[in-house]
Amino acid sequence: MGVRFLKMAVIYILVGISIGIYMGTTLNFALTSVHAHANLFGWATMALCGFTYLLFPKASNSRLAKWHFWLHGLGLPLMLITLTLMVHGYAPNWIIMLKRIGEAVAGTGILIFAINVFSNVKASDFQNKRNDNVSMEKAGGEHFG
Ligand code: HEM
Ligand code: HEM
C-alpha cells in the first residue's frame, strides 16, 4: 500500500506544481486553494501516509489501509474538481453537494488512517526492524531502508 500511496502522491505534486506555474505565469490566483490542497492534502499527506505504510507493514496489510486508499483517492479529486468549477463561476447546488461529499469522503479516509495508526503502528515493530538492520550490517549484509 505504501508504494501505491507514493505513486498517487507524485501525481498530485505534478498537478499541484502545474497549477502553481499556471498561476505564477497568468497572475490569476483564483486556483490558490486547489493548488494548496493538491500539494498538501495530495502530495505531502499522501507521501507521509505512504511512508507510514512502508515502515509499518501491519498497518499496510490491514483492511483499513484499503479503505483509506479508496476514500482518500476518490474524495480528494472530487474536492479539487468541484472547487475548480466553483472558482470559475459554475456553482449549481449539485456541484456544491458533490464538493461536500468529496470533503466528507476524503476526511473519512483520514479518520480511518488515524484508527489504523492507533491500532496497528507499534513502537516495538519499528524497534525490531532497526535491530534486524543492525544485525544484517554486522553480518556484512546489505543495509536495509
Ligand atoms: C513550481 C512550484 C510552485 C509554484 C510556481 C507555486 C506557485 C504558487 C502561487 C502563485 C501561489 C499563490 C500565491 C498567492 O495567492 O498569493 C501559491 C500558493 C501556495 N502554494 Fe505554491 N507553488 C509551487 C509549489 C508549491 C508546493 C510544492 C507546495 C507545497 C508542498 C505549495 C504550497 C502552496 C500553498 C500552501 C499555497 C497557499 C498559501 C496561502 O494560502 O497563502 N506550493 N503557490
Ligand atoms: C477534508 C479535508 C479538508 C477540507 C474540507 C479543507 C478545507 C479548507 C478550506 C475551506 C479552506 C479555506 C479556503 C479559502 O480560503 O479559499 C482551506 C484552506 C487551507 N487548507 Fe484545507 N481543508 C482540508 C484539508 C487540508 C489538509 C490535509 C491540509 C494540509 C495538509 C490543508 C491545508 C490548507 C491550507 C494551507 C489552507 C490555506 C491555503 C488556501 O487558501 O487554500 N487542508 N482548507
UniProtKB/TrEMBL annotation:
Cited InterPro entries: Cyt_c_oxase-like_su1_sf (IPR036927)
Keyword annotations: Membrane, Transmembrane, Transmembrane helix
Lineage top rank: taxon: Bacteria
Name of the protein this chain belongs to: Cytochrome c oxidase
Regions that span the bilayer: 9-31, 37-56, 68-89, 101-121
Alphabetical list of SUPFAM superfamilies matching this protein: Cytochrome c oxidase subunit I-like
Keyword Transmembrane attributed: yes
